[in-house]
C-alpha cells in the first residue's frame, strides 16, 4: 500500500473501528431524521 | 370539475415528474461511486497523489448528488402509499420485501458508509476508508439490484399466486419473483447506462478544464479514464440494449410495436422506421423514413420474418405510441453518439492527440449531459411502453390509483414541482460550481479547508505526476 499514510493509520485497530462505527451510526441516524421529516411533511 | 380520469392523469404526472427527477441522481451516483473506488484503489496501489486529488474532487460532487438522490428516493417510496394505494395493497406482499431491501441497502450500506467516506479518512485510516468506499460502491449496485427487480417484476410478473382477496402473493420460490424474465437484461442495461452516464459527465468536466488549460494533469487523467470507458463500454451497452429489446419482444411485444411504430402487421418482413410522425388516430406513421425489412432482421434475425403490429391489439391495451416511438429514438441516437465519441477518442489516443484535439474536447463537453437524457428517455420508453398496465397484463394503471380527490393530487403535484425545482436547482447549481473549479494538487477533502501553499509552485512530485508524464 503506497498511498500516503494518514494520522489514523498509526492508531490501534479498535480505535479506528470505533470511529468507523460512530460515523456510520451518525450517518444512518441523519438519514433517518431526513426520512421522518419528509414523512411528516407528506402526512 | 375534474373527473376520475383527471385524477389518474395527475397522479401519473406526479409519479413521472418525481421519478424522472430522482433517477437523474442515482444514474450519476451509481457510476461515480465505482469511479471513486477505482480512484482510491489506484491511489493506494500506486501512491500517486493525483488519484487522491481526483478522489477528493469527485467525492464532494458525489456527496451532493447522493444526498439529492436519497431525498428524492424517499419521496418515491412514500408516494406508493399516497397516490397508488390500490397498487400497493394488491402487489405489496410481493414487492414490499424487495423494496424494503432496497431501502435498507440505501440506509445501511450507502448512506452509512458515505459518512465514513466524507469524514473518516483522518479517523479510520486508509484501509478502512477504502473498505467504506467499496461498501458505498457495492451498496449502489445492490440498491439498484432490488429496485430493478421490483420494476422488472411489474413488467414481467412471475413467481406469484393470486390470493382470494385479489392480492398478489409470493409463490413457492422468491427466486422466481426476483429473477423474473426481464430482470437480468434490465439490471445490466441500466447499471451499464449509469456507468456511461458518469463517464460522459466526468469526460465533460475533464474536457472543460482541458479547453482552459491543456497542461492540467488532473483534467488529462479524468478525461483519459472517461474516454476509455466511452470507447469500451458504449459498444457493450448497444449489445446489451439489443438483447434487452429481444427480451422485450418475447415478453412485451406491444411495447416493441410502439417503439418501432408498427401500427400494422408485416407478414413478409417489417421495415425499420428511422423517423416519422406517429399518427395514432389514422393508425400510421406520417412522413416515415424507413429501411425495408430491417426491423425483421434486427428483431428476428431474418429479413422475411413476419412481425405483428398494433392492429392485432385492442385499442384499450395500446400504449401512447408517439411518446414511446420518440423516446426510444432519443435513447438509441444518443447511444450511437456516445459510441462515436468513444471511437473518436481512440483515434486521437492512437495518434497521441487525446489532449490536443480541441474539437474532441468540445464534443465531449456537449455530450456531458447525454447520459442523463438517454437514461430518462430509456425509462420513458419502458414505462410508457408498458401502459396501460402497472403489473403487465394483470393490473391496469386505472385500477391502481388511490381514491383521492383531484384537488388533493393537484396540490401535492404543485408542491412537488415548486420544492423540487427550488431544492434540486440549488443542488445542481452547486454541483456545476464544483465542476467548474479545476482539479488541482492537494485537493481538499469534504469538511477540510484547502491547503494553500502561497508562493510555492508545485513541482511534478507535488502535482502527482508520474515519471514521464510531465
UniProtKB/TrEMBL annotation, chain B:
Q: Name one GO cellular component term.
A: cytochrome complex
Transmembrane regions: 20-45, 57-78, 98-121, 128-148, 187-211, 223-240, 323-347, 359-380, 409-432
Q: Which keywords, in A-to-Z order, does the entry hold? A: Cell membrane, Electron transport, Heme, Iron, Membrane, Metal-binding, Transmembrane, Transmembrane helix, Transport
Main localization (coarse): membrane
Q: Which Pfam families match?
A: Cyt_bd_oxida_I
* GO terms under biological process: aerobic electron transport chain
Q: Which family does it belong to?
A: Belongs to the cytochrome ubiquinol oxidase subunit 1 family.
In its UniProt entry, what is this protein called?
Cytochrome ubiquinol oxidase subunit I
Amino acid at each position: 500500500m503506497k498511498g500516503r499514510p494518514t494520522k489514523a493509520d498509526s492508531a490501534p485497530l479498535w480505535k479506528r473501528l470505533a470511529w468507523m462505527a460512530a460515523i456510520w451510526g451518525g450517518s444512518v441516524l441523519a438519514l433517518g431524521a431526513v426520512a421522518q421529516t419528509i414523512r411528516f411533511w407528506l402526512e | 370539475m375534474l373527473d376520475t380520469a383527471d385524477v389518474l392523469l395527475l397522479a401519473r404526472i406526479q409519479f413521472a415528474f418525481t421519478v424522472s427527477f430522482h433517477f437523474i441522481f442515482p444514474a450519476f451516483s451509481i457510476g461515480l461511486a465505482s469511479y471513486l473506488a477505482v480512484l482510491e484503489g489506484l491511489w493506494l496501489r500506486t501512491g500517486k497523489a493525483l488519484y487522491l486529488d481526483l478522489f477528493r474532487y469527485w467525492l464532494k460532487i458525489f456527496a451532493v448528488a447522493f444526498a439529492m438522490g436519497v431525498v428524492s428516493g424517499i419521496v418515491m417510496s412514500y408516494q406508493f402509499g399516497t397516490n397508488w394505494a390500490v397498487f400497493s395493497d394488491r402487489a405489496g406482499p410481493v414487492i414490499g420485501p424487495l423494496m424494503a431491501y432496497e431501502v435498507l441497502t440505501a440506509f445501511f450500506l450507502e448512506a452509512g458508509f458515505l459518512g465514513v467516506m466524507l469524514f473518516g479518512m483522518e479517523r479510520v485510516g486508509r484501509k478502512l476508508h477504502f473498505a467504506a468506499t467499496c461498501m458505498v460502491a457495492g451498496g449502489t449496485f445492490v440498491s439498484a439490484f432490488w429496485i430493478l427487480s421490483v420494476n422488472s417484476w411489474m413488467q414481467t410478473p412471475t413467481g406469484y399466486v393470486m390470493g382470494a382477496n385479489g392480492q398478489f402473493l409470493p409463490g413457492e420460490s422468491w427466486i422466481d419473483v426476483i429473477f423474473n424474465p426481464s430482470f437480468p437484461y434490465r439490471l445490466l442495461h441500466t447499471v451499464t447506462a449509469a456507468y456511461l452516464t458518469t463517464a460522459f459527465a466526468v469526460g465533460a468536466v475533464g474536457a472543460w478544464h482541458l479547453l482552459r488549460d491543456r497542461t492540467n494533469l488532473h483534467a488529462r487523467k479524468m478525461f483519459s479514464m472517461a474516454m476509455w470507458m466511452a470507447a469500451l463500454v458504449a459498444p457493450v451497452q448497444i449489445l446489451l440494449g439489443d438483447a434487452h429489446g429481444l427480451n422485450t419482444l418475447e415478453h412485451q411485444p406491444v411495447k416493441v410495436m410502439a417503439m418501432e411504430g408498427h401500427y400494422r402487421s408485416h407478414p413478409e418482413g417489417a421495415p425499420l422506421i428511422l423517423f416519422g410522425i406517429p399518427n395514432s388516430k389514422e393508425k400510421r406513421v406520417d412522413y416515415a423514413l424507413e429501411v425495408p425489412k430491417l426491423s425483421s432482421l434486427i428483431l428476428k434475425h431474418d429479413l422475411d420474418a413476419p412481425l405483428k403490429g398494433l392492429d392485432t391489439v385492442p385499442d384499450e391495451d395500446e400504449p401512447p405510441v408517439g411518446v414511446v416511438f420518440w423516446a426510444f429514438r432519443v435513447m438509441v441516437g444518443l447511444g450511437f453518439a456516445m459510441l462515436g465519441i468513444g471511437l473518436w477518442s481512440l483515434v486521437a489516443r492512437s495518434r497521441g492527440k487525446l489532449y490536443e484535439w480541441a474539437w474532441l474536447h468540445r464534443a465531449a463537453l456537449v455530450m456531458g449531459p447525454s447520459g442523463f437524457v438517454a437514461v430518462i428517455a430509456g425509462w420513458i420508453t419502458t414505462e410508457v411502453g408498458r401502459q396501460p398496465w402497472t403489473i403487465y397484463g394483470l393490473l391496469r394503471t386505472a385500477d391502481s390509483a388511490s381514491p383521492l380527490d383531484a384537488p388533493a393530487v393537484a396540490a401535492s403535484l404543485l408542491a412537488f414541482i415548486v420544492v423540487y425545482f427550488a431544492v434540486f436547482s440549488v443542488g445542481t447549481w452547486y454541483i456545476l460550481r464544483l465542476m467548474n473549479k479545476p482539479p488541482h494538487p492537494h485537493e481538499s477533502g469534504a469538511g477540510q479547508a484547502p491547503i494553500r501553499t502561497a508562493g510555492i509552485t508545485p513541482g511534478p512530485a507535488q502535482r502527482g505526476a508520474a515519471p514521464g508524464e510531465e
